[in-house]
Design a protein that fits this description.
six-stranded mixed beta sheet; 2 domains; three-stranded antiparallel beta sheet; Nucleotidyltransferase, domain 5; about 290 residues; alpha+beta; 7 helices
């Protein structure tokens, strides 16, 4: 708690700080299971490192889709002005654990440390499905639209513009939230609309994991937040390459947790001290024009 607190108080970050969650997959040196059992229809593998497990990772050209090891789930603070991201909290688990189960744990840990959270950008696995996280904490979670969620009728999938029915040519205006639904109202003068007499001129769209999350995905600010989120790979590059989390093989989940904690401390101390900042290049002195002419 001490290091993140002083980092956040140091002024390294700006005033506008969204947060992001993501995970990485440091591998263990044990790759072949000692035993593989089938228990109640579930395949259970046992490795020489009893705490680790086999999970999937993002497709990488030089690595297998499967990895045996751990998955640190990390909450990062993002400077909206510079786009730089910094690891605040990491919770490691075996590699077969999904990100979705760690969103609430990361939020609870951050709030216990006094970190102010308002908006968290996440991947598609970390939607606030039932709104329970928002109801409990007031924190907004935004993630890319889930591909399995169908877009409601009469909604432009590119722009997110909402229409009342197929005959509408002017998109409806966003009016706000009513309970667990988004409300849209007609933005056209009734005298200019032929079906105005039979049209209710409003529409409710329930929250979902697609375009219509608690903050609609098509709003400009949310798209900007997801553009900024692309920088959240930086903390993992620092943890894995600068502090050696990728190359140092440790056994057991407690040892991995300690390694993640020390790596985060190292990164935050270096950023606070400013030792990673590059010195401005010195301009070479130029000869006076009369000497050059001579």
């Amino acid at each position: 708690m001490y290091i993140p607190h002083h980092f956040l108080q140091s002024g390294v970050l700006g005033d506008h700080i969204p947060h992001g969650t993501d995970s990485s997959e440091p591998a263990d040196e044990c790759k072949i299971p000692l035993a593989s059992l089938n228990i109640n229809g579930q395949k259970v593998r046992i490795y020489s490192d009893l705490d680790c497990d086999c999970g999937k990772r993002r497709n990488k050209r030089d690595k297998s889709v499967y990895v045996v090891g751990y998955r640190p789930h990390t909450l990062t603070a993002i400077d909206a002005e510079t786009g730089h991201s910094f690891p605040i909290i990491s919770l490691p688990a075996p590699a077969n654990h999904r990100d979705s189960g760690f969103l609430t744990l990361l939020v609870d840990a951050a709030q216990a440390m006094g970190v102010e959270l308002k908006l968290i950008t996440a991947d598609t696995a970390c939607h606030d499905n039932d709104g329970s996280l928002y109801d409990k904490t007031g924190i907004y979670v935004t993630a890319p639209p889930c591909s399995t969620v169908s877009t409601p009728k009469y909604v432009d999938t590119g722009s997110g513009e909402v229409f009342r029915h197929a005959e509408c040519s002017v998109p409806m205006a966003y009016a706000g939230i009513e309970e667990d639904k988004h409300e849209y109202k007609c933005s056209v003068n009734t005298s200019e609309c032929l079906p105005a007499g039979t049209c209710p001129q409003y529409r409710h769209i329930p929250f979902d994991r697609g375009f219509f999350q608690r903050i609609p995905y098509h709003t400009e600010q949310i798209r900007e937040a997801h553009e900024i989120r692309k920088n959240s790979e930086r903390p993992f590059n620092l943890l894995k390459n600068q502090t050696g989390l990728e190359t140092v093989r440790v056994r057991s989940q407690p040892a991995t947790a300690a390694r993640c904690m020390l790596s985060s401390i190292s990164v935050l101390l270096l950023e606070t001290a400013g030792t990673r900042k590059k010195e401005p290049a010195k301009k070479s002195p130029q000869m006076p024009l009369f000497k050059m002419a001579a």
